[in-house]
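Example record

One chain of 410 residues, shown exactly as stored in the release files.
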Amino acid sequence: MSERLHYFDGLRGVAALVVVVGHFLSAFIPAMVFGSQEPEMALANQIAGTPLYVLYSGTFAVFIFFVMSGFVFARALDRSDRGILENLIRRYLRFALPVLASILVAWVLIGLLPDANQRVGEILDVEWFARQYAYGAHDIERVLREGLYRNFVAGGSYYNLALWTMRVELLGSIALIILYCALQPKYRMLLLFFSIVYLLGFTDRGWWQNLAAIAVGAVFWEGSKLNWKVPYAHFLGAVFVLAGLYLGGLPRVGVRPDSPLRPVMDVLRELEFGNAYFLIMTAAASCLVLGIALWPRAQKLLSGPIGRKLGDLSFPVYLLHFPIVGTVGAWVFVTLNGFGVSTPIAITVSFACYLLLVLGLSELFHRYVEIPTLSLIRLLSRHWPSDVQIAALFRSLGDRFRNVFIVLVK
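Predicted structure tokens for this chain:
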């Protein structure tokens, strides 16, 4: 089966929109994300502590990305005869070139609207949002450095808060490349299972634990090759989807005593195995992805024209949304606030402008950055030397270095 899984494209697009909404609410209505004790924010605070949080939980959406990434990339590697070096270069270019382009966009926007987010932070008393872009746009050297390597090493970018995931994606990709290109297939499931247990239960760094979700995705691919007949697949798929949405609604403000998620948290804390939050997010994303893979109705819903289009734009949307909300979205709100427009209306208009600009720029980004990047990668593969040619090249270089060394010694 080599066809594209369009329902995963649709799911990725929906997850990207969840991140878009989540970051906007974090900046403009933070009580819906972080909670608040202010009386006027009682409704927002109540929503933040319920499973309704799943509708804008960027963390849950990112875990969905990780699980799908593990499945799709493992699937591609398993069906390819490319070597390790070629796969590493392809994967790096797939991430680095769009990331660099998105940071260039952020650099331009910050230069044009350098303090809009800080003014929003002052007006709405949102400290974390006011801290972004506190030192202006910097120079082009920093843009190139962050886009090409620093973001993947440090796990984040000054220009784009959302880029912390790129380190997880690249490191997870490297691990899968080694697993599928250098090791025998019979060891894959064992190593993946061991990795999941170790990463979730015995590491204390959050981004390391995120790698477990990528490993789960690879396990799903390995399991799909068994071609098992799943009884009551439709029913089980619906159950898994509902379970994923239920668990994915774990609120950032913590699980209150009256929360429907309280029993789950209590059980995990009693087990004293790993970080309960990361365990739940990994389980939630895994249940949702597995459920959709089993449930044809969900697949049909996500595979429609809108789902496919959102899937096409999902990576650009993810890369561009935060610089836009921190500049243009913030500027619209500050401008309306200056004209005396009420805060709720100003926030609503700002969100509409922000969303339209994100979708519009993402379409341009998809056409003029992402598609050319994929074309460049395909061109590279067509002209990539064979393993025999690479081995001959390294032997030739080795002979030359040896001859030079002998001459220098004499």
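Notes: The chain has one domain: 6-409.
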